[in-house]
């Protein structure tokens, strides 16, 4: 009988080192506690980011719902107002392109040079204003009125006014070199030549740049005013969660 039962080590299916490890975990308990603390700390570190993301998402939903309840005039100004700034940018591009063509006596490829000067400034101005003013404003990330207005003015001046002039310079320079419409200097006087050529054009475009600055300031001010209306309606509501229903 004893031979059939065998020794206690033979009856147990676990290896001795497994038994020792289990005894250490069960009797001491320190490793299990460390493991639990590590998991709890991981959850605690991860939860604030999730809560912030959830709160931001809920806030954007409330803002969007209140925005849909605003008058159509405010909605149209908010959704399509940047197109006025972009359209003025296209006009600046076409005007600068025309000035360079007259100075360089370019008579060919008028459509080839006019099309990109109308499209590229329009898309660039609309995209930059959307990314740096409108989206952060209505996402609740740009609460400062002065910051929003300054951004609008800078975008109007740099992207909407000066950028089309700088864009027209290399395009018309390549056309002048290709069609030999006017004599171009050598490499040693090239920078001075283009500086002297572009200087009167920048003076002529100063009025357009000023108009773009005022347009950007106006749009940013109106958009911030619409955002303030939304915040006032949010604070006037007793239970903001009802807006999500």
From TrEMBL:
The keyword Transmembrane applies. The chain crosses the membrane at residues 109-129, 149-169. InterPro entries: TMEM126. It is a multi-pass membrane protein. Keywords: Membrane, Mitochondrion, Transmembrane, Transmembrane helix. It comes from the Eukaryota. It is found in: Mitochondrion membrane. Its main location: mitochondrion. GO terms for cellular component: mitochondrial membrane. The keyword Transmembrane helix applies. This is Transmembrane protein 126A-like. It comes from Grus japonensis (Japanese crane). The lineage of its organism: Eukaryota, Metazoa, Chordata, Craniata, Vertebrata.
């Amino acid at each position: 009988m004893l031979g059939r039962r065998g020794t206690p080590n033979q009856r147990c299916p676990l290896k001795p080192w497994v038994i020792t490890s289990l005894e250490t975990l069960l009797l001491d308990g320190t490793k299990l506690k460390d493991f639990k603390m590590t998991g709890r700390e991981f959850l605690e570190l991860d939860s604030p980011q999730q809560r912030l993301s959830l709160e931001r998402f809920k806030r954007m939903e409330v803002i969007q719902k209140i925005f849909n309840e605003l008058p159509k005039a405010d909605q149209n100004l908010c959704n399509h107002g940047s197109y006025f700034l972009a359209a003025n940018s296209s006009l600046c591009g076409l005007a600068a392109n025309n000035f360079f063509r007259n100075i360089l006596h370019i008579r060919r490829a008028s459509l080839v040079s006019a099309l990109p000067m109308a499209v590229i400034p329009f898309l660039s101005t609309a995209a930059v204003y959307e990314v740096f003013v409108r989206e952060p404003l209505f996402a609740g990330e740009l609460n400062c009125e002065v910051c929003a207005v300054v951004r609008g003015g800078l975008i109007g001046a740099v992207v909407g006014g000066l950028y089309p002039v700088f864009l027209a310079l290399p395009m018309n320079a390549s056309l002048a070199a290709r069609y030999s419409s006017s004599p171009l200097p050598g490499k040693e006087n090239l920078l001075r030549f283009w500086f002297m050529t572009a200087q009167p054009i920048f003076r002529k475009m100063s009025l357009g740049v000023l108009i773009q600055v005022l347009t950007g300031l106006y749009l940013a001010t109106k958009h911030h005013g619409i955002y303030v209306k939304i915040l006032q309606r949010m604070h006037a509501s007793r239970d903001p969660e009802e807006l999500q229903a």
